[in-house]
Amino acid sequence: MHITVCLSQQKPDPWQQGLQAALPEADVRIWQPGAPAADHAVVWSPPQAFFDEQTQLKAVFNTGAGVDALLAARIAPGTRIVRLDDAGMSVQMAEYVCHAVIRHFREFDAYEADVKAGRWSYRKPRLRTDFPVGVMGLGVLGERVARALTVFDFPVHGWSRTAKAIEGVVCHSGEDRLDGFLSQCRVLVNLLPLTPQTENILNRRTLGLLRPEGYLINVARGAHLVEDDLLVLLDSGHLAGATLDVFRTEPLPAGHGFWNHPKITVTPHTSARTLREESIAQIVRKIRAVERGEPIAGEVDRQRGY
Ligand code: NAP
Ligand code: GLV
């Protein structure tokens, strides 16, 4: 079995070494133009030249959860596309989102500013019932996040394409339920995949449906958000703030209006990082399952886009 590794944003050597150690029966190599045909590939944003050469792959394993960049490539129709299925990401995402929600709800930024100014001040406790949180996307990450938020007794709503039942979460599904879902939420967390259906889904109209003094947490993809619409809603006061981990252009360009906006917290696409060891273990299990002809989780439906 021949496995090729082609990673644009991670150092390929530790991946090659880790895969080789876990799959001693295979020949694992870092891809170079003109390399021999492989059975499986482990990739992140490979160049089109990679797929133009590697047309016989049984499966291509993405070293992230989101496959929007990968699906933009022309990949041989017979190649299965497989994404990371949690691999240690959901707990990181739950930490990040709960931190952002609680920081906003408990006004920790205001307390920090008071302390820096030498002020011992109290704020009126806010009611959790006034802070319903909505999670868009109830997949591997969204479900874990929604469940984690229920632990803090926030009212939690979720929205997905197909119907779900999650204890403690009011689940909504389908395009026709989007507006009803949004109008019940004050804090909105985006964990949708980026597809033609979800691009620009966070815009003036949809964010305008949130309860007054709404708050946005975007941890999915930058292209979900119409950036100027967010600025308009923050300026008007309809939105109280936003925590953004993902951007249309990454790294966020110098001078971009989000960098120093007083109501926006920026993090550098770090809410749920790929953990190499866990990811290699998962990919190895899946390669073995594919070789045995067994079903695997996280297989991407090209038509659906995720
Ligand atoms: P997933 O398991 O595929 O879940 C996607 C969810 O979105 C599913 O519940 C799906 O509904 C729902 N959905 C898809 N299209 C929809 C539509 N048109 N309308 C309503 N709901 C729709 O994906 P995941 O593993 O949770 O990851 C989600 C995304 O997070 C990734 O695609 C990636 O972009 C992002 N991400 C970001 C980071 C970061 O560090 N910032 C890290 C990892 C992932 P169904 O369940 O009904 O199919
Ligand atoms: C990160 O953004 C991922 O999709 O894994």
Would you write up a description of this structure?
This protein has helices at residues 12-22, 48-53, 68-71, 89-105, 108-116, 140-151, 178-183, 204-208, 227-236, 276-292, and strands at residues 2-7, 27-30, 40-44, 59-62, 80-82, 133-136, 156-160, 169-173, 187-190, 214-218, 239-244, 264-266. The chain is of the alpha/beta class. The protein has 2 domains: 2-87 and 274-292, Rossmann fold (3-Layer(aba) Sandwich); 89-266, Rossmann fold (3-Layer(aba) Sandwich), CATH 3.40.50.720. The strands form 2 sheets. The chain has a 7-stranded parallel β-sheet. Strands 2-1-3-4-5 form a 5-stranded parallel β-sheet, with helices on one face. The chain binds NADP nicotinamide-adenine-dinucleotide phosphate and glyoxylic acid (GLV). Glyoxylic acid binds at residues 64-66, 274.
Number of domains: 2
| Mean pLDDT across residues | 98
Assign the CATH topology of the largest domain.
Answer: Rossmann fold
Strand % is: 15-25%
The gross shape turns out to be: elongated
Ions and ligands: NADP nicotinamide-adenine-dinucleotide phosphate, glyoxylic acid
